[in-house]
Design a protein that fits this description.
157 residues, alpha+beta, six-stranded mixed sheet, 2 helices, 11% helix
Length: 157
């Protein structure tokens, strides 16, 4: 809940700040994103209180969608399906890559998925935008290289 308050401890803050759960972006990033044709990201109206930095940062919120993985093409292994067929909430054991079911994707450039809700998914257009504007602190994993393996948590696997 606003106001968002953080303390910057050392070094120079880049264009992306995250603790792994939420993230904030620089004012320059917000301005460029809003001027672009990219979709799927909204920003808090008030800047983050960031002690130790004079730059303005804004909390960023990716669009939450009902986009679903193509489970077969993604190499999904589940322990238990806990949700309905629409949300596909599952106890994920393994994921070999990210392949989405195109018919479930509304076309956003940055979004969170229904059955991979812990990750933020981006289009190549978004990646190109970050590179073209030389934004800092972003790291990307290609969809074919993204893997999750929780099999060590499941004794029955």
């Amino acid at each position: 809940m606003p106001p968002y308050k953080y303390k910057w401890k050392k070094g120079v803050a880049g264009d992306l700040l995250t603790d792994g759960m939420v993230f904030a972006v620089s004012e320059r990033f917000c301005t460029c994103f809003e001027a672009s044709e990219l979709t799927g990201l909204t920003f808090a109206e008030e800047p983050v209180e960031l002690k130790g930095s004079t730059a303005n940062y804004y909390m960023a919120f990716p669009q939450v969608t009902r986009t679903l993985l193509d489970e077969a093409a993604s190499g999904v292994v589940i322990n238990n399906l806990r949700g309905c067929e629409k949300c596909r909430v599952m106890s994920l054991v393994k994921l070999d890559r990210v392949v989405i079911r195109e018919e479930t994707w509304p076309g956003y450039d940055i979004f969170m998925m229904g059955n991979l809700f812990s990750e933020i998914v981006l289009t190549q257009r978004f990646v190109d935008f970050v590179i073209a504007n030389s934004f800092t602190n972003f790291q990307f994993i290609d969809q074919d290289d993204f893997q999750i393996d929780y099999s060590f948590l499941h004794n029955d696997q």
